[in-house]
Amino acid sequence: MFLPANRFPARIKSGPGFRRNMRREDALNETVRAVAPTPDIARDVIAVRRLSKSYGSGADAVDALRDIDFTVSDGEFMSIVGPSGCGKSTLLKILAGLMPASDGTALLNDVPITGPRKDIGVVFQSPVLFPWRNVLGNVLLPVDVQRLGRERMTARALELIALVGLSGFERRYPWELSGGMQQRVALVRALIHDPALLLMDEPFGALDALTREAMNAELQRIWLERRKTVLFVTHSTSEAVFLADRVLVMTPRPGRIADLLRIDFPRPRSIDIMTTEAFGAHVRRIRAGLNAGGALE
Amino acid sequence: MSGGPRSFVLRLVLILGVLAVWEAVVRLFSIPAFILPAPTSIFLALYRGFASALYIDHMWITLAETLMGFVLGSTLAFALGIAVALSRRVEYFLYPFIVMFQAMPKVALAPLIIIWFGLGLTSKVVSAALVAFFPLMVNTIVGLRSSEEDRVNLMRSLAATRGQIFWMLQLPNALPYIFAGLEIAMIFALIGAIVAEFVGAQSGLGMLMQSMNFTMDVAGQFSVLLILSVVGLLLNTIVTEVRRRVLFWDPSQKLDVVTPRKGGMP
């Protein structure tokens, strides 16, 4: 009943699957509609057009990404969900300017991303804190690199540290903190220079399940307060649905877009929402998308 | 088992016991002093040497040679290590020389160094510097190249320049390796200085041992050896103390790990 993986429409908006998905989305929305966000009229912070990436060349070339198309509007939270090897980390690296694309373009505020930029914040899977810097020093790393002035930015750093509940830990060193606390420091570090875009690459993947849930709730709270444009990569379907305005489903070999869902649950969402039927419907649809791409075989 | 006043006393008792057995064996079997002197005669030689200020003068000479050689060798090793680690071109052209010199026993160069730089202080400093050079250079290169990919990516994602990546990431990240190299370099510098003194010198503890050897003063030699090990221990303590303060953040600092030997033979 599903199309073979290699013929699955990569360009969601023009493929026949898009219309079918829209109907299902509408049906879902009737049950869960409350506060409808209006991202359609907002301008696009990210616009990815026919982006492809292959490693190697000639016969040995491996396609990591093929014909990726999507946009993220200002203040939107988008999750990208997919199994390992679907190229979602590659996609994030390209958007962070750490890696060139083989084909296609990625625009950030209408400017092509050709290299690292000062207006992007990245949170990696591991906290990547520098052990020779204390919490405040780690948070101020982007300030030091981009010469924004420590005097001016320290107040903002302290405010952000308080926002994630780490007041009193400013002078502590990374090894004195738990995994969850370290990842909060990494989040604050990614926000300190007020980036136009926050890229998160499975930021809670290394945490235990309970800490992860708490961090999800925490991230939502911070996002509601700061309204950053977020691209959040995860391999957890429930995490993707819980956090996002929209979920992009990717399938591997080569990495391509299998589905795009709008999640219209009102915010703030509580963790309990995960047990509702509507939430389960979203998760099932994501699984179906992954299945169609042969990701869950 | 380790630590605590009781084990400290036990340790002391053990050392005294070994000395007592040594003394007894020498006296019981009437071993000639030029083969194995009794501990008492070694301590007597030590006392006489210090009382006449002979040991102090020579010790200062050796210490000065060692420290100057250490500073010279470390500075060059650090600079060259950075150049090699940061530039593939420099590495490409220097690599054959590095490999050749690393495999060579540097102390074998001591006779040549004496011919080139004379019997004075200079030749000892050069010898010490040469022997101290390699462990630090190798560790500097390894340390600067050991930055985790994620950390480099983080710096790059912030649009950091190469200089910023070096100063804010690579250099602090390399410090544990650099200090391990400095620890070895300090001891190697002492070896380099002593060997050069053996080959030809007018003063220094190595020269003193050499002349004692000619007069069969084995007790004297033992006493100088004792001084040398104390000097070595002190020099090592200085480096580890500095390391402890600078590298308070290094997790391996908390474990009392034995520093790996790198940089080939002295």
Helix and strand layout, with pairings?
The complex is a heterodimer of chains A (297) and B (266).
Chain A: H1 16-32, E1 44-55, E2 62-73, E3 77-81, H2 88-95, E4 103-108, E5 111-112, E6 120-123, H3 135-139, H4 141-145, H5 150-163, H6 179-191, E7 197-201, H7 209-226, E8 229-234, H8 237-243, E9 246-251, E10 256-262, H9 277-292
Parallel strand pairs in A: 3-8, 3-9, 6-7, 7-8
Antiparallel strand pairs in A: 1-2, 1-4, 4-5, 9-10
Helix pairs in contact in A: 8-9
Chain B: H1 4-28, H2 39-51, H3 54-86, H4 88-103, H5 110-117, H6 121-144, H7 149-157, H8 162-199, H9 205-214, H10 218-246, H11 251-254
Helix pairs in contact in B: 2-10, 3-4, 3-6, 3-8, 5-6, 5-8, 6-8, 8-9, 8-10, 9-10
Secondary-structure element string of chain B: HHHHHHHHHHH
In CATH, what is the homologous superfamily of the domain at 20-119 and 196-292 in chain A?
P-loop containing nucleotide triphosphate hydrolases
The helix fraction of chain A, in percent, is 25-40%
Number of strands of chain B: 0
Calculate the mean pLDDT score of chain A and round it.
83
Shape of chain A: globular
Rg of chain A: 19 Å
Number of helices of chain A: 9
Compute the average pLDDT of chain B.
90
Keywords:
heterodimer, A: 297 residues, alpha/beta, Rossmann fold, 6-stranded mixed β-sheet, 10 strands, globular, disordered N terminus, B: 266 residues, mainly alpha, MetI-like fold
Describe the protein's architecture and organization:
The complex is a heterodimer of chains A (297) and B (266). With 297 residues, chain A is of the alpha/beta class. Chain A has helices spanning 16-32, 88-95, 135-139, 141-145, 150-163, 179-191, 209-226, 237-243, 277-292; strands spanning 44-55, 62-73, 77-81, 103-108, 111-112, 120-123, 197-201, 229-234, 246-251, 256-262. Chain A has a domain at 20-119 and 196-292: 3-Layer(aba) Sandwich (Rossmann fold), CATH 3.40.50.300. A 6-stranded mixed sheet of chain A has the order 6-7-8-3-9-10, sandwiched between helices. In chain A, strands 2-1-4-5 form a 4-stranded antiparallel sheet, covered by helices on one side. In chain A, helix 8 packs across helix 9. The two termini of chain A are 16 Å apart. Mean pLDDT of chain A is 83; it is low at 1-40. By secondary structure, chain B is mainly α. Mean pLDDT of chain B is 90; it is low at 255-261. In chain B, helix 6 (121-144) packs antiparallel against helix 8. The chains are: A alpha/beta (297), B mainly alpha (266). At the A-B interface, helix 4 of A face helix 7 and helix 8 of B.
